[in-house]
Amino acid sequence: MFPEIIETDKLTKEIVLNDGIVYKYNFDNQSYETLDGNLIEIVNKSEKIKQWLEFLIRTEFESIDIYKSTEFGLSLKKYIGKKNIPLGLISSEIKEQLNKKIFLNSDIKEISKVIVSKSSSKELVINIFVMSAVEGELEVSINV
C-alpha cells in the first residue's frame, strides 16, 4: 500500500547555492538602474552583499507590509534626527540589530565592526565591516 523507501549508504547530491538575479538599485533616485532600457544585473558577490545591507538598514522593521513577519529591516527611526543620543550608543545598537539579522543572508558570516558618524548635512553615516563567506572582509558605507 505504501511506497517502498530504499535507503542508500551514500548521498551524492551537489548543492548549488544560487542567490538569484539581483538588480542594481540607486538609493539616491529610489529606482532600479537601467542601461538601454534593461535593468542592470549585479554579478559581483560583494556588491550584492553591500546592496542587501543597504536595503536592510534603510527598511524600518515591521513598517512595510511585504516584509512583516520576515525579520527584515532594522529599528533605526528612533535615532534619526536626534541630537542628544551618543553616536557610540547608536553604533552599538545597530551592530546588535545587524548581528540578529545576518542569518537572513547566507553570504555574511559576521559583522565585525560598526562605526556611526554624522556628515556635514547631519545625516548618519554608517560604516559596517562585514566578514563574508566568499569575499572576505568588506566595508560598507551607508548614509541615512
Automatic annotation (TrEMBL):
Lineage top rank: taxon: Bacteria
Name of this chain's protein: DUF2634 domain-containing protein
Originating species: Helicovermis profundi
